[in-house]
Write a structure and sequence with these properties.
Elements lengths: L5 E2 H8 L3 H10 L26 E2 L1 H12 L5 H6 L15 E2 L5 H14 L7 E8 L2 E7 L7 H14 L11 E4 L3 E4 L23 E3 L5 E3 L13
Parallel strand pairs: 3-4
Antiparallel strand pairs: 1-2, 4-5, 6-7, 8-9
Helix pairs in contact: 5-6
Length: 230
C-alpha cells in the first residue's frame, strides 16, 4: 500500500496547486491524506517539519483537487452568480479572497444585489476579502443617491461574517491570536495563542485604548442589528 502513496510535494504538482495550499488544508484538520503519520498532529507546533512523511493516495488527490481548485476558489458561487459579478482583470486584480465557510454569505450578498438592481442601476461585486476577521465586500456603484440600501446590505453581511466560521460556516466569533480570524471553537486553534483582547472585542472596528491603556468598547455602528435585520 505504501508503495502506491504519493509524496506531498509530488501531490501538489499533480493537483496543480501551490505546495503550501496543501499544507493549509491539512492544517485546518477537516481533510486528511491516507498517509498521515499517526503521531503527526497539524494542530501542534512544528508539525510542518515532518511534511516529507505525508503521503497521498490517488483518491486523496481527487479529494484535495476538489477542495483546493473548486471549493476554496468558490467556483459554484462564481458560476451561479455570474450576473452580479464584475471582477477586475487588470494587473494585481482581486476576486474572492476568503475562506469557504463564508460561501453562504456570498450567496446572500448576491441575492441582495439582484434585488437592488434596476435597469439603470446595476451594482456588482468586483471583489471580496477577509480583513480584520470579517468579510469586506467591494461593490461597483457610482450612484450615491441610491447607495443607502447597498451600504446596509454590505454591512449586514460583514456583521454576519463575524458570527460565522470562515473555514466551515458553523457559528463562530472573532478570535484574537497571532492574527484575527472568525472561527468556530473547533477551528479556533489556527490563530495560535490567544491575546488579552480575545473574547472582549468581537468586532475589530469597535474598540480603542483608553487613557489608562485599557481596552474600551466603542459603538461606531451606523445601524443597529435590528435595523439590519439581524
Amino acid at each position: 500500500m505504501s508503495d502506491k502513496l504519493i509524496p506531498i510535494r509530488d501531490a501538489a504538482d499533480i493537483i496543480g496547486c501551490d505546495f503550501y495550499a496543501l499544507i493549509r488544508v491539512i492544517e485546518y484538520g477537516d481533510l486528511m491524506p491516507a498517509g498521515m503519520p499517526a503521531d503527526l498532529d497539524p494542530r501542534k507546533k512544528f508539525w510542518s517539519r515532518h511534511l516529507d512523511d505525508i503521503r497521498f493516495s490517488p483518491e486523496d488527490i481527487e479529494r484535495f483537487r476538489y477542495e483546493i481548485n473548486h471549493r476554496r476558489k468558490h467556483v459554484d458561487f462564481i458560476q451561479d452568480y455570474a450576473d452580479i459579478l464584475d471582477f477586475d482583470t487588470g494587473p494585481g486584480s482581486r476576486t474572492l479572497e476568503q475562506g469557504p465557510g463564508w460561501d453562504r454569505l456570498l450567496c446572500e450578498l448576491g441575492d441582495g444585489l439582484r434585488v437592488l438592481q434596476r435597469p439603470d442601476w446595476r451594482p456588482k461585486l468586483y471583489f471580496s476579502k477577509e480583513k480584520f476577521g470579517c468579510m469586506q465586500a467591494h461593490v461597483s456603484d457610482f450612484d450615491r443617491e441610491r447607495r443607502l440600501p447597498l451600504d446596509m446590505l454590505i454591512e449586514r453581511i460583514r456583521r454576519k461574517s463575524l458570527r460565522t466560521c470562515e473555514e466551515c460556516g458553523e457559528p463562530g466569533r472573532l478570535r484574537w491570536g497571532s492574527f484575527l480570524k472568525t472561527t468556530c471553537d473547533r477551528h479556533a486553534f489556527v490563530v495560535g495563542t490567544l491575546r488579552e483582547e480575545d473574547g472582549k472585542i468581537l468586532d475589530a472596528r469597535m474598540w480603542r485604548l483608553g487613557e489608562d491603556g485599557k481596552i474600551e468598547i466603542v459603538n461606531r455602528k451606523r445601524w443597529s442589528d435590528e435595523e439590519l435585520g439581524l
